[in-house]
Amino acid sequence: MRAAVIVLPGSNCDVDAYHVLREVVGLETDYVWHQEGDLSRYDLLVIPGGFSYGDYLRAGAIAKFSPAIQEAARAAAQGRLVLGICNGFQVLLETGLLPGAMRSNESMLFRCRFVHLRVENTDIPFTHEYKTGAVLRIPVAHGEGNYYADAETLQELQEHGQVVFRYVDETGAPTAAANPNGSLANIAGICNREGNVLGMMPHPERCAETILGSQDGRRVFTSALAWWRNKGVIGRG
Amino acid sequence: MMWEACVQVMLKPGVLDPQGETVGKALRTLGYDEVQTVRVGKVLKIKVEGADQAAVAARVEEMCRRLLANPVIEQYSFQLVKESEG
Amino acid sequence: MMWEACVQVMLKPGVLDPQGETVGKALRTLGYDEVQTVRVGKVLKIKVEGADQAAVAARVEEMCRRLLANPVIEQYSFQLVKESEG
Amino acid sequence: MAERWENVGLTAEEYDRIITILGREPNDLELGLYGLMWSEHCSYKHSKIHLALFPSAGEAVLQGPGENAGVLDIGNGLGLAFRLESHNHPSAIEPYQGAATGIGGIVRDIFTMGARPIALLDSLRFGTLDEPRNRYLCSGVVSGISGYGNCLGLPTVGGEVYFDSCYRGNPLVNVLCLGLVPKDRIVRGQATGVGNPVFIVGARTGRDGIHGASLLASREFDESAEEMRPAVQVGDPFMEKLLIEACLELFETDFVVGMNDLGAAGLTSACSETAGRAGSGMELDVALVPRREEGMNPYEVMLSESQERMLVIVRQGCEDQVRQIFEKWGLEAAQIGRVTDDGLLRVRENGRLVAEVPAASLSDQAPVYDRPRRRPDYLDETSAFDIDQIPVPEEYESWLQRLLQSPNLASKEWIFGQFDYMVRTNTIVYPGGDAAVLRIKGSERGVAVSTDGNARYCYLDPHLGGAIAVAEAARNVVCTGARPAGITNCLNFGSPERPDVLWQFRQVIEGMSEACRALGTPVTGGNVSFYNETSGQAIHPTPVVGMVGLLDDISKRCTAGFKGAGDVVVLLGSNRPELGGSEYLVQRTGQVTGRPPRLDLDLERAVQETCLAGISAGLIRSAHDCAEGGLAVALAECCFLSSTDDLAPPQLPGRTPAVGVQVSLRSEMRPDALLFGESQSRILVTVKEEDVPQLEEIARSNGAPCTVLGMTGGERLMITGGPAGQQLIDLLVTELWQSWQSALEKLLGE
Ligand SMILES: Nc1ncnc2c1ncn2[C@@H]1O[C@H](COP(=O)(O)OP(=O)(O)O)[C@@H](O)[C@H]1O
Ligand SMILES: [Mg+2]
User: Fold this and answer.
1) Alpha carbons D240 and A12: distance in angstroms, whole number
2) How many CA atoms within 13 Å lie on the side-chain side of D443?
3) How many beta carbons lie within 10 A of that of residue D377, not counting itself?
């Protein structure tokens, strides 16, 4: 499997995604500059966190026009894997690859801290190595992670198991206090209908090594690798 | 000819506006009890070159649709004003 | 009576507007070569209760000065519109 | 009418000096250049001779003071570039942008050296939070740092904040940046090689900030600040991020001869400094400088302090490749001049000569002053203060509760939680403890870093206070298992034209130097911020020390929180009845008074060596410095930060505490001094019961006092002690934690 980390002007978690993919998971990984128009050789495209174009106007808004992001849409349509983390998630929303939109955190403050996430759907390439309902400890670091979708979209998301991660407390309950940003229905990550495009606000690449306080994010990457090795069949970890 | 498009982008009604809520709360804390609701949006003043008002308007409309507003949560409106030469 | 104050807050001329610069560049990259400059500001729609227009205007003016605009780098203007009852 | 020189802030003598240098009267532009470069901010004319006292040499020093940042050798072929800088005056006018552009400036200082910036710290001082203005300044500054630093993708891993009425009207915003550079690729701010082209890259030049940082920071701060308002600049972190990446990409090539950021005094400073350092000259044409505004005259172009710009001196013949790199990152790079060998800075406008002065005369021939110094009178009163005037309180629990909610001692998570302290995944000890630790990927090594400076001690005894700032910073770093390696510093003072302020300044430097020598930590650079006063009222002398330390093996790193129940709590160092200058005394009397705690540098070293040896032998399971609030507060903090994780954790902030502690402090001392006194050279450590003798042996061989105080466990913080051995504190840890954890948010969250 070959992975690409798309580097947009203003990306800054590109180094972290690269480090995890290459050093921790051991994938062949390249940085690709956002002007790159042909990403057909990659099985996994990661749109990393950061502040693409300074997050000016709206987070992710300007990035959606980059050739590499347009390529991500093609990859998604072909069933290859696309993962958007934090700003990458915002980009996926702006491009329409995932439904909904992001607003400022309810507190209007940037918040960096560890939260708990419940894995709601373990039937997709990125999460099949988790146990359903598993509670993960994983960091968030964002100022605009307050997910919004209209009622209809929300219902569709729920019906099709597209809500992949929810903010919960230590016991796994999706309480208001456990929600770091006011996100609708405590949503922290969603996927497309097919499950090959995942967007999430928390940072799995920041908790894939014990030295960083948690390894709970690692399986997002190893799941993807196993899925690819099994030629698209989901194996239970 | 030079035009100034003044574009307003607001969150759709019904979409909770955290910034508006925060500003509203701050105003009431400062003693402005008469404040009922606050909604915060963006205004963009865009200077564009163009011969014909209708054509310029169509282009600005397109900019709004493609980039300036996110139709999932936002709505936009704009006014076009002719700039005095020089 | 209910009023809506529509407050515009813009950076003062001469103050760098990184957001405007970046949006302008993005628009030109998208092919809108006619775009000369872009300045981005805030618009706040504030619903206020008040009997008398002049008094309401004075209060809104004060809100702008004290909280809504940062006089060091920003300037503001506003319009007051009477809301239809109900 | 004001004299010519007065308009640019110079004296008649300084004007004469310019005439001597030039052999003629300067024209207006030339005079403007001198005015700026000879301002206190740019020339250090009042501080230079005192700063020379700092020990700046050391085996590991790859670059000492004089460049944009100091660089220490940290092994593995790497240099650690770091520097601390103030942005006090801009932040007082516009807290968000002032702090943001402060970050922008210090980051440029680091990557100018060829270093990849890896982390930030912030040291802040505000007036008390009961005043709305101070709350506004504090939250504005914090969001400015957050807005700019987070966008750059730089973790802000630590810092400090104090609230004291002396900073009312004069907040301090000092920021520190660290960067890594291959030892053999350090870039210097030097313009060498006759004929080499000079580029300006990054943002366009506007009228913003003309007479900004330099003049604002070189004058007393009063109502006239109002009219300087247009001098406030807006930062563009996105532009800066592009600039960092482009410059670092450029450093991979061999196209660059030298580089300098454009900070205070803009082009004037960058050109004259690079030429001055190299002993060369430079010729430039202001008409070639890309502008953001029309109609700017040469004076404005030369003096503009527009942000996010760099001056790059390039090897002749590489112009196009250089342009291409900047183009890739969407940045403008304009060739504006070339290096000459005649020592002159020659400025043209469309070819017409508009200024011609010796470059070095601007950058390092400013006059140097040794102005009068005098010990201030208030010291007689404060040092005569007698603690026996203050009755011993009835009970201690409510005092502990009160202290833990004081914004000076409460959890700072409301602040650092707004900073992305994890990005780049190098932070392996998070903020919230003593020092942050960053791993150096691809090696076993790590860097620990902390900023410290208790200004109350400096106010009460500047010599001692200066020494304590260094000792405490070193102690913080030692608590993680890192060996202190060097410091940078920022000296925030009132007007140097006042003898009492200058006396304090000198004393602080002497104290710091003494401690640096004793602890083997050279000073690699720093910054001076004078004129921090409002209406004749100066701030407390406030040196801030930025200390870095090195860990050879990061798997041995140590954190402050207790690691579960059943460990023995040991105090390295000893308690003395010292309440002078303490937070407790301020809370009780409303006054900063008394004598600060003593500092015995031999003892300090013994304690630090013991702690380091204990950590590296794998005995010490947690280590925490006793600082403000004294032993009781330190014990509470060890509980608050406790966990049951077996692995050395990065110490996640904001988690509910895991264990309590029970200690007995046998002492004849009055209990409030015992609990809340701020004696120096104390570290609280925990070890397994069977390891106590081994730790005692290490302590003995180093000559450090070592006392078993008690045991971790339970849910309560229990302290017995004092002359009668009575119960002093018995409180539920989670309850204390809640008020400590939420205090700042309550005050600032609104
Ligand atoms: N302004 C700040 N920015 C970031 N971190 C901060 C700030 N203030 C305090 N901290 C962090 O909070 C913790 C406690 O700070 P402090 O009380 O000054 O510790 P100490 O007394 O041990 O020096 C440290 O980890 C410090 O880095
Ligand atoms: Mg400290």
Assistant:
1) 12
2) 15
3) 8
Domains of chain D by range and CATH? Answer: 9-38+188-364 (3.90.650.10), 559-750 (3.90.650.10)
The model's pLDDT over A139-175, given as tens digits with 9 standing for 90+, comes to: 999 999 999 999 999 999 999 999 999 999 999 999 9
Question: Which ligand has an atom closest to residue D161 CA?
Answer: 1
Give the position, in ligand 1's atom list, of the atom nearest the Cα of D450.
27
Residue D229 has pLDDT above 60, yes or no: no
Tally the domains of chain A. 1
Of the candidates D419, D440, D441, D442, which has an alpha carbon nearest to the alpha carbon of residue D430?
D419
Domains of chain C from N-terminus onward: 2-82 (3.30.1280.10)
Check pLDDT > 60 for residue D366.
Answer: yes
Tens digits of residue pLDDT in D600-615: 999 999 999 999 999 9
D209 has pLDDT over 80 = no
A7 in a domain, yes or no? yes
Asked if residue D293 has pLDDT above 90, the reply is no
Q: Radius of gyration over alpha carbons of chain A, in Å?
A: 16
d(CA A33, CA D330): 13
**CA D315 – CA D193 distance, rounded (Å):** 8
Phi, psi of A33 (to 5 degrees): -70, 145
Asked if the structure places residue A209 within a domain, the reply is yes
Token pair recorded at residue D140? 């504005």
Per-position DSSP letters for D359-392, written without gaps between them: HHHHHT-S----------THHHHHHT--GGGSPP
D-contacting residues in A 35-64 (Cβ below 8 Å): 49-51, 53-56
CATH number where A84 lies: 3.40.50.880
Q: Subunits that touch chain D (at least 3 Cβ pairs < 8 angstroms)?
A: A, B, C
Contacts of D192 (CB under 8 A, 6+ apart): D257, D258, D278, D280, D313, D339
Chain D hits for C38, Cβ within 8 Å:
none
Can you name the residues that pair with B74 across neighbouring β-strands?
B11
Q: Is residue A96 part of a domain?
A: yes
Q: Which residues of A are annotated as catalytic?
A: 86, 203, 205
pLDDT tens-digit series, residues D242-292? 999 999 999 999 999 999 999 888 999 999 999 999 999 999 999 999 998
8 Å CB contact of B38 and C45: yes
For residue A133, tell me if it sits in a domain: yes
pLDDT in tens, A185-215: 999 999 999 999 999 999 999 999 999 989 9
Q: CA A227 → CA A44, A81, A84, D519, distances in Å?
A: 11, 10, 18, 55
